[in-house]
Protein 1
Amino acid sequence: MASNLSPYRLAKARDLFNIFSVFNALSWQFLTGNVVALFALRMGASPTYIGVLSAVLYLAFFFLPLGRALTNRISMVKIFSYAWGGRSLGMIPLLFVPIIFAAGHQDLALLITLLGVAAFHIIRGLGMIANNPVLSHLSKGPDQGSYLTQIQVLQSAVVMFAGFIIAMLLGRDPPLFLYTIIIAVGIITGIISGVIVNKIPEPEAQETGKGKNLIEVIKETMEQPSLRRFIIIVLLVALVSGVSRTFLVVYAREVFDQSDGMVALFAVFGGLGHLMIGLFIKFLVDRVGAKPLFTICVIISLLSMIPVLFFPASQSDNLTTVILFLSFLFFMLSFGWLGSEGIMQTYFMAMVPVEKMTDMGMIYFFSFGIAGVVGSLFGGVFLDVVVAISGSYYTSFRILFLILIIITGITLIPMRKMVSLGALPFISALGVLFSFRELRAISLLERLKKSSNAGEEEAILDALHDTPSKLAIKGLLTRIKSPRLSVRMESIRAIDALKNLNEDAERALMDDIINNPYTSAYRSARALGNHGVFHAVPLLRELVLSNDYMLSGEAMIALAKLKDTGFMSQIESIIKETSNPRLQMAGAEALGIYGVNDSLPVLLDMLRVANPPPYLADEVVLAMAGILGIQHKFYPLLVRFLADETQASTLAQDEAESAYEHAVSVHVNKRSNRNPKLKAFNYQTKSFQSAILEYIKTFSGSKLSRWIREIPDELVNEFVRNVFIETILDEVHFNDLRLQLLIVHWASHELRLWTSKLKAEF
C-alpha cells in the first residue's frame, strides 16, 4: 500500500514526470498522427484507409481490461513503463516499409504500416490503465487542475517544436526514407520515456474495484446520473474532436493541394493552439473550475468549424488566403478540441474518487475508444462515398463539417446539467474572462502561491486588497494562518475588501477573533461588522468586555454596523466608565453608526472633561454629525478646520452665509408678505446671520437658541432641538470650536431643509 508523498518527494516525482512528458511527447509526435497519415498518403492511401488508420489509434482503449488484469500481478508503474517502451518497439516494422514500397508492393507496405500502428496502440492500451492513477497520484492537492494542465502545456510545447522540425525536414516533396529517420527517432525517444517513467513512485493501491468484471463496472457507472451524462458527453466530444482533427490533413492535401511540408507546418499551428489553450486553462482552472472552461472550449470548437462551410471555392487557388485559412483552422480546432479533451480529463479526475480511478478511468477511455473508432471509420467512408457521388472533396468536407457542427450543438445540451464540482456558473466564468480586475487578481494569486518570503507575500496581499475578487478567498484563507503577523493582517485586510464572504471566510474570521487577541483579532472583528455577519453578534458581545481594548473597540463598532441596538446601552456605559481614549473613540464611532438621538447627551458629556484628547473630540463631533445625518458634508468642513484652527470663525460664517443666500434666492419675492409661512420664514432667514454671528464672535447663544426654537416641528426632532438649545447656553461648551462649528453647520442644514420644504409647497 503506497503512502502519500511528502511535499519534497511529490515535487521530485513531478519533476521526473515532466522529463518523461518531454520524451513521451517527442515520441508521440514522431510516431503518430500527422506523420503516419502523411506517410500513408505519400504511398497513395485513400481517405477510408486514413480513417481506418485513425481508428486503430483508439484500439488502445479496448485493451484496458487486459491492462487492468495485469495490475493483479504487476505494479502500475511497471505496466506503464513496459507498455511505453514496448509500444515503440511495435513501430520497428515501419522502418522497412519504404524498401517494400520501392519494390512495388504498395498494398503490403500499407498493410505493414497499419499493423505496426496497431501494435503500437494495442501495447499502449495495456499501459494506459496506469495513466489516470499515476496522474491522479502526482496531481493531488489544491493545484490539481493547474498541474494537469501544466503537463498538457509542456507536452504541447514539445509537440509544437517537434512539428516544426518535421515540417522543415519534409519540405515540398520528401522521399520516404526521411519518414524512416523520423520514425526511428520516435522509437528511441519512446524507449527512453519508458525507462524514465519506471522511476516514478508507485500510486496508492486501487482496492475498491478489485474483483469486478467489466460489465459490473459499466453497470455501476451507468447507475450514477452524473457519470452517465458525462460519458455521453465524452462520446460526443471525442467523436467530433477525432473526426475534425484527423481529416484536416486530408482536407489540406486534397482540397487545397498542400505539400507534406506545408501540412506539417500547419500542424505546428495546431500545436501552438494546443499550447495556448493549455496556458489559458492552467491560468484559470483552479480559480474558475473545470465545468465552465469545458463549455467554453466546446463553444470555441463549434465556432471554429463554421468557416469550413463558407470558405469560397474560388479562393482555393489563392495561396495567401489558403495559408491563412488553414493556419487558422489548424490552430482553432486544436485550441478548442484539445482544450476540451484536456479539461474533460481534469473534470473527470475531480469527479471520481481516487479509489475508483482505475475502474472508472477504464470506462472513460472506453468511451473515447468507441467514439474514436466510429468517428474515424465513418469520416473516412463518408468522404470516399460523397467524393464518388459528387466528384468533389470540397463538397464532401462541407457536408461532413455540417454534421459535426450539429453534433457539437447537441453536445452543449447535456453539458448544462453537468455537476459543477465547485466551479463558477458559466455566466460568472465569462465575467471573469472579460474582467481585467478578476484576471489581475488571478495573476496575483499565482504569484502569491509561488512567493517565498513574508515581505513578498505582504506586497501581493496589499495588491489583492486593491483588486478585490471572490476568486481570491481560497488563497487568502491560506495566508490567514501564516506564522507572520503582518501577513495575517494583510490577508484579513484583503478579505475585508471583498464584496461578499463565503462560509469558510466567515468561520476563519470568527476563529481569529477567538484565538488571536492582542494581535489580529480586532481586524477580523472589523471585517465581520463590515460584511454584516449577523450570527457573530453573540460572540462580539462577549468580546466587548475583552481586556484587548483594540478588540473591544472594534467589537462595539461591529455591533453597531450589525444594528444590534439592544447592546447600545452597554456601549454607553463603557464610554462613561472607561478612561481609555481608544475605547472611548470606538464607542463614540459606534454610537454615531447607531444614529440614535438619545445618545447625543452621552457624547456631549465626553466633551465636558478638561482637555479631552484632540482626536477623541474629533471622533465625538463626527459621531454627533452621524446621528444628525450630516456627517458626509460636515467631515470635509472639520478637515479644513483642523488644517488651520484659526479659521474656525471664517468657516462658520461661510456656512451661514451660503445657507442664507440659498434661502434668499429661492423665497424672497413679491409673494413673501402674502403668505404667513413665507413671511415667518423670511423673518427667520433675516435673523439667521445675526444669530450665527453673535454665537461665533461672543459665544452668546441667546439669539441662536431663539432661532432654533422657531424651526418648524416637522423639520427637527424635539429632543435634538432641546439638546442643542441647552448646549448653546451651556458655558462649559463655550470654547469648544469643533462643537461650535458643528452647531453652525447643523443650523445651516436646517435652514436649507426649511427652504426646500417651502419650495415644494409653493
Protein 2
Amino acid sequence: MTVWVLVAFACYMVGMIIIGAANAKKNKNADDYFLGGRNLGGWVAALSAQASDMSGWLLMGLPGAIYAFGANQAWIAIGLFIGTVLNWLFVSGRLRRYTIKAGNAMTIPEYLSNRFRDNKNILKTISSIVIVVFFLVYTASAFKAGGQLFESITKLTYHQALTLGAVVVLIYTFLGGFLAVCTTDFIQGTLMLIGILTVPIVAVMVMGSGHIIPNLVDSGLDVSAKDFLNIFYENGEPIKATSIASQLAWGLGYCGMPHILVRFMAIRDEKELGKSRKIAIVWVLLSLAVACIIGVIGRAYLFPTVLTTVENQNENVFIEMIKKLFMGDLTLPFIGGIFLCGILAAIMSTADSQLLVASSSVAKDLCKGVFFKKLNDRQVLFIARVTVVIVAVLAYLIAWNPDSSIMGLVSDAWAGLGSAFGPAILMSLYWKKTNIAGAAAGMLSGGITVIVWDYIKLIKETVVDATGKEMIVKQTLAESTGIYSLLVGFFISLIFIVVFTLITKPVSQDVIDEFEAVRDNNIE
C-alpha cells in the first residue's frame, strides 16, 4: 500500500516541478519574477493568498491543538477568520491602488519606502531584515511539517524526510518565481479544501456518529467530553479572558503578512479583486471550521490509538486519519495518497511564498535598493535565486530539531511579522499624517517586543518539582502571563507610530495629495 502512496506523492511533486520549469520561461524581468506582472486572476489570487497563508498549520498544527487541548483552541480559528475578512475588505483594494500610485512598488519594503519618501532607505533596510528573520522561522515550520509528513508515511528518518520536502519546494520556487508559486498555490489550495472536507465526513460514516462521544470519553481526556467540546472551557474551568484575547489576536497578524499582501498587489484589476475577496472568505471559513472539527473527529475515530503531545504526535492527527481510513478501513491507498498530498500542498504553498518574499527583500530591496543601485534585472534575478537557496538552507537547519513544534514556530513568526508590519501597513493606508519616523519606530518596536516577549527569560518564579522541592526558574513574559506576544507587540507598535509621527517633522503636501488620490480611487 505504501507504494501507491509514494506513487501519488511522486506524481504530485513532479507536477509541481514541471509548473516551475514552465513558468521560468515567462520571467522576462524582475517584475515578472516577484509580482507576475500584476496579472493575477481572481481565482488564482484568492486561493494563492489563502493557501500561502494557512500552510501545514491548518492541517497539522490547528487540528493537533484541538485534539490535545479541546475546542477552546478554536478561538484561534475565529480570530483568523475575522482577520481574513477585514484584511480583504479594508486592506486589499487600497493597498493594491497605493502600490501602483507609489512608484509601482513590487514589494512591501519598496511600497513603504515610496509611500514615506524614504530617500535614506531606512524603511527598506528595517523591513527587509524583519522579513528575512521571521520568514526563516516561518519557512522552518513548513519544512518541519513536511518532515513529519514524509516520516509518517515512508521508511525515511525525520531528517531524510525533511531533506526531500525542502528540495522539492526549493526547485520550483528557484525556477518559476511568483507565477509558478501562485499557479501551484491555486492547485494546492483546491486540493487542501477537497481533502479537508472529505476526510472527516467519510471518517464519521465509517465510524458511525453514535461512537463519537463514547470514543472521546474512552480516549483518556483530562476533562469531561462536555468540557472538551466547549469553547468556553479550558482545563475543565471557564476559559480566561486573556486566553480568548490572545487567541483572537492571531487575526491582527493578517494585515502584516508580506506573503499575503503581495497577492493583493498582483491582482489584475478591481473587478478581479472583488471576485477574489468572495472566494477567499468562503474558502477560509470552510477550511478553518473543518480543521477544528478534524481535531475532535480524529480523536474519536483513531481510538484506541491516542496521540500524545510527546514529540508533537498530536499534530499528526489528520495524517493518521487518512492512513487508517484509506489504507485500513477502505483499502484505497492511492486515494489516501492524494489526500496526503493535500497536506503536502498546505506545507509547500506557504514555504514557496515565504522563500520568494524573502528573496525579493534581499535582492530588490536591500541589494538593488540600498547597496548596489546600478544592478540590472538579470543580476537582481540571480541574487534572488541565490537568496532562495540560502534562506531555504537556513530554514532547513532551524527545522532540523524533530522535537520542535509546528504550532510554536508558526506562532512566533506570525507574531513577529504581524507586530512589525501590521500597524505600519494600516496606518500608511488610513492615516495620512503618518511619517517615516513613525513607520520606522512602529516596525522596530513591534518586532523587538515579540523577540523580548517570546525569547528573553526575564521573570523569576518559584515552582515545585515532582519531589516537592521548591526551585526558582526563569520564564519569558509569554510563559509567565499566558498572553500572546502579537497582542502586545501590535498595540505597542501602534502607539510608537502615533507618538513618533506627532513629535517629528510632518509629511510634505505631495504625500498628502498622493494619499487622498488613492483614497478617492484616482491612481491614473
Protein 3
Amino acid sequence: MINAFCKVPLWECNGKLVRVAQGQEPADVVIRHAKLVSVTTHEVLENANIAISCGRVAYLGLDGHTADHCIGPDTQVVDATGYYAAPGFMDSHIHVESSMVGVAEYARGVVPHGTTGIFADPHEVGNVRGLAGARCMFEDARRVPLKAMMTPPSCVPAVQGVEDTGSAIFAKDIAEAMTWDNVVGLGEMMNFPGILGGEDNALGEVQETLKADKAVTGHYTIPETDRGLNAYIAAGISADHECSRPEDVIARLRMGMYVQLRFGSAWLNLPGYLPQLLASGVDTRLCTLCTDDCHPDTIVRDGHMDRVLREAVRLGCDPVTAIQMATINTAECFHLGHEMGSITPGKCADIVLLEDLRDFRAHQVFIDGQLVAQDGRALFEVEPYQWPDWMTHTMNLGLEPTAETFKTRVDLPDGTARVRVMGILPGETITHDVVREVPVRDGVLCADHDADILKICVFDRHHGAEGVHSQGFVTGFGIHGALAQTVSHDAHNLLVMGDNDEDMALAAQTLAQCGGGEVAVQDGRVLALVELPVCGLMSTERVEVVAEKVSRIEQAWKDMGCTMPSPFMTMGITSLACVPELRLTNRGYVNCLSFQMEPLLAD
C-alpha cells in the first residue's frame, strides 16, 4: 500500500538514507542522548541517537554508537538528555467532528499532546453532506502537519429504513473513495445485521475495501462471541472499538481481530476491561488505543492520546506496552507498519520527546522530522478555513417549533399512561428499554421531573417540508429545563429534550436561528450556547474558544441537575439506531435488537 502521509516516499529517498546512515551525507536533524522507547522489542534503550533525513529515520545509534558521523554544518542537533523518545501517538478510531472544530484546528489541539496521526471516520459529516462533505472536511486537513488518515463512512444511514439522513453512501461510492490518497480503510461497519444477513450493499462496501487491500473497521455491539462474531470477522472486518466486557475483548483477540480499546470524553470503557485483560496474560499485540469521540474541553484541559496512555498506566498497564498500543499496533492494524509506528531506520520520523512514562507530557513533537510542537504549544498556525455555503447552511426544518409542537397528544383520560422510556446510565453507549408511568393531562402525555422522566423529540432537519418528527421519553439525565443539539448520532437531526414544552421550543428555535449546535435553556432563558454552523457539527472558532463554550454548557447541565460525565455526548446517541436497546429517530422508537419500530405507549 502506498503511503501518502510521509514527507518523501521511501523509494524516492532510500539512496540518500543509505548515504546519511554511513556518514557520506549529513542528516537534517540529529536527536542525541535520548532514552529510546523501542516498541519493536519492548525495551527502553539508554543514550540513543536518531539521525533524520527526508522526513525519515536514516540512522539509529544504539549500544554506544553515536550519530556524530551524520552531523554536518547545517544539521539541527537536539539534545534529548533526560527525555524519552517514543514514536508519535496515533488514535486508531476518532470522529473529529466530536471535537466541534475542523481538522486543522483539531490538529492545533492534539499535536502538542504527542498525537502525530489519526485514523478518522467522518461519518458525522457524511450523514449530513455525504462523501462530498467528508472530502471537503479533509481538504482542511492538508494545511497542517497532523497525519489525518481517512476511513470513509460505511453506514450512511446507520440503519436502513428507520430515520432520515441528509445523504446516503453506497458501495459504488466507497469504491471511488478507496482511490483517494488520504484513505486507508473503511469506517466502522455498524450495519452488522446487514453483514450477517448477507445484505448486498454492506457486503459490497467491505468487498470494495478489501479489493483495495485496505483495512475494514467494525462496530459489533451485541454481547455475543460465537457464530455472529465469527461470521462478522470472516467477512473481512479486522478491527472493532465497541467492546464493553473483558470477554468481548478476549474473544476478538483470539479470533485475530484488532481491538481498539476506548477512552474518550463520555465512553470510558478502558477501566471496564483493561485490568482483566492484563490479568489474563493474553498477548496485547492486537490491541490499539482510541478515543472515538473527544470533546474540545477534554482536549484542551486533559489532553488527547497522552490522556489515554495515563489512564492505561493507572490501570496497571506497563508503559511500553501502552505506547505499543498507541503506535506500532495501530500502524500495523492499518497496514502501515512498514512506514510508521516505530523509531527505526526507514520509517517516518514521527517522534515525541517525553518527560516521563507516567504523565506522558510531551516536551517536543516531530512529524516527518520537523519540530511542530513544544511544551504544550503548537508551532504552526492556520487561518480560519473558508467553508463553502453548502457546508454551513444545513438547518432545514420546514416548520417553526413552538410549545404546541412538543405536546404529545393521546386519546386517553387524565391520570397516567404506561410508556416506553429510554433508560440511560452514565458513561455507557447502551440504552435500556424500560416502561414507566407518566402523567396524562388534557389528552397530553407529560414529562415528570420528580421521577426524572423527560420528553425527547427528534426533528428531521434535512428535508424541509417533507421532514417528520417524533416524540418519546428518557430517564437518567435529571435536569429541569430543556436541552437541544444537532449533534445527534448518526443522522444528526435536531434533538430536543426537556421537562416542559416552552423551554423545549426556545431551545429548538435558538438552534434553528444559529445554524445548529448545542443549547441549554431553563425557565425561558438561554443559559449557554455552542454555535456549530458547519453541518450543525463544527465551529469556525479556535479550539480554545469552543472548549470554553463547551465548559460553560457543561456547567449549565450541572446547574440544571445533571451529574453524568459529558452528558451532551450521551444525549447525542439517544437517536443512534445501531446500538441496543431502544433509540428514538425522527420516525419514532427503534428496537435496536430486532430493528423494528416500536410504539410509544407500552400497552
